């Protein structure tokens, strides 16, 4: 996984601390996540077969991943038969090389982009820019991020950390550098902002000869790519250009159209809280005289086969990027997406990024701990990824690695005391004896607790001491 | 019925009054409580922080100590969930630990489950004339799926006025070592929870887990809200003759 944009990021706790102090950011995030999470809850609640759909979604993904080799070859054959070309990319660098080469072969220096996580993961825009090719993001929120020279902070709503006033300011300041400028009298009315974006983007759609996309699903049987979006901008990119290049992670495969049906129910309700997705585009290779006449599919591994090899961690590959886990997560809501230092923020990021990138950097090693294990993410996940289970599994890998000496020593000491009831009893008596000495604010690591919370008082007698005393009294026939 | 009490290391050391309340309550209802003294800790902190080997040792000890019990009561939602939900992950499939843990799991209960499902009571004859709000706790809500058992028990308490808590399902931000490792986010979550609690006008916040209550209570105390925290057992044990200490 490529990570140059995030190199040098502080570990999660430090980045999150900064975010919790940003009142505007917390307000923006709270409002946005609560709105989407409530919408999701109400449309999911309408379906009495939701648990069955969810189980079916998980089962289809698991079965496909178990036989991924078979389905990948089937997909390649179907795409070829439909007139498309298939490329295999082992990592980000190879994928970027392939796409850059394909664009250069057309002689063009501009591409229009459909919102795509895979191309962000490999940092395709940056790679294209190095080759003198400009990539225009056409999803409204991605456009805001691109114009603001910013990073996305949410899978589905990349500019969730921005409010209307900030968006107006960005449009007024930077649209002119990228193409059609925003009108001088632009207000922060959502309709006015959308209209400015529409005018700005329309010119790009009509001019572009090359489109770049990802795909939400790839149907192996027919070689069909599927993109779900809400604006119709994606459909412009998928139909108007002459050449279309789709970069798709190898885990996006579904075997058949009837498998796809399950996900077309799960995804919109989980992501935008809609019963049906507004714009669902499907295309199969090339159709003569209609749409792009040159189609390339770049199948991306970039660490996914390593994830597949981990029997606990592999469930992360079921993810359909709905972002329900982000919207429900109390940690994401307060820390914001940037603290996760990856294009995949929130609970899914906390289990996917350390698997794709490893846990050797301080940031990546801190991600499995960016959760209170409250389990809300697992509960809403439409493909039943047990995120807390994977988090704990990844914590075990971090603990098995180097570093964290003080914590390991403390945990070993606690383990030793707790492994014998007599040692525990002795420790309790020592604590009770010193109870008058415990101050209300603790120095050193203890201050992490007492900066914001009082410490409980240590009781004079532990439960087990009381129990003994009471039983002794009883043996003698006395009261407790 | 004879109930084996797993008091939990946190209650044993810091909140013995919860353990004493459990004993008083169950004996009042005519049941026998035993306290196997070999017990220490379920291993939750070690497991959740990634210290699998230490957690395994403690799991083996737990299963050895409680394996024969008819019913094990853990007056802590997260510890009950640890034994029921996570022990099966600690032993390799087919190992002795995995098998013994699977056999024991269905006999491990949280207090509200033991009372409502096993002993078949919702009115335990308690008296507690105060306005109370209930925080469901993540493990109680999502792992044990306690549902309305605790609030049914509370509603049956004479004199008790139950106030609904806004954003009840949201985590309080404790999360064991999370409270230390991500202290800024943990504190932000805790202060939002404390704000919702204070807004109910309740005198007492009740939950089935003293770890969450220690975190929310510590935050409430720091803000001088005047709201006390009490484990469910202490409210249910409370009577006119022996009222719970606020
Ligand atoms: S992990 Fe589940 S809830 Fe989160 S984005 Fe993926 S599919 Fe959606």
Automatic annotation (TrEMBL), chain A:
Domain Lactate utilization protein B C-terminal: 402-472
GO biological process: lactate metabolic process
Organism: Murinocardiopsis flavida
Ranges for domain 4Fe-4S ferredoxin-type: 316-385
Keywords, in A-Z order: 4Fe-4S, Electron transport, Iron, Iron-sulfur, Metal-binding, Repeat, Transport
Domain LUD per the UniProt entry, residue ranges: 74-296
PANTHER family with a match to the protein in the record: LACTATE UTILIZATION PROTEIN B
Pfam families associated with the record: Fer4_8 (PF13183), LUD_dom (PF02589), LutB_C (PF11870)
Region ranges (Disordered): 435-455
UniProt name for this protein: L-lactate dehydrogenase complex protein LldF
A Gene Ontology molecular function term of the record: metal ion binding
InterPro entries the UniProt entry points to: 4Fe4S_Fe-S-bd, 4Fe4S_Fe_S_CS, FTHF_cligase-like_sf, Helical_ferredxn, LUD_dom, LutB/LldF, LutB_C, NagB/RpiA_transferase-like
TrEMBL record, chain B:
Cellular component terms (Gene Ontology): cytosol
Highest taxon, organism lineage: Bacteria
Cysteine-rich domain span: 3-83, 132-216
GO molecular function: oxidoreductase activity
Pfam family, one: CCG
Protein name (record): L-lactate dehydrogenase complex protein LldE
Organism encoding this protein: Murinocardiopsis flavida
Organismal lineage: Bacteria, Bacillati, Actinomycetota, Actinomycetes, Streptosporangiales
